[in-house]
Q: What sequence folds into this?
């Protein structure tokens, strides 16, 4: 299991926003908090990182623990077409 540490801050209307997270030895800066929702005992956050990847991070409220439930790389060549 890879260690996941998440840095959050309070957003508008009391919602929590993810600023960055560390997955193993790599730090990922979040450039967009796309969505968040609640499940039974969990909170889910869909974020986009500076490298264009999408993640869904899940916070287990009972264990006070984070994990990654989805990881998606951007389509190949997307950054070349944007710059």
A:
């Amino acid at each position: 299991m890879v260690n996941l540490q998440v840095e959050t801050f309070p957003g508008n209307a009391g919602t929590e926003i993810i600023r960055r997270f560390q997955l193993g030895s790599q730090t990922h800066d979040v450039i967009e908090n796309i969505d968040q929702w609640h499940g039974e005992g969990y909170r889910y956050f869909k974020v986009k990182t500076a490298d264009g990847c999408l993640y869904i991070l899940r916070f287990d409220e009972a264990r006070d623990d984070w994990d990654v439930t989805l990881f998606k790389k951007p389509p190949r060549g997307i950054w070349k077409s944007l710059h």
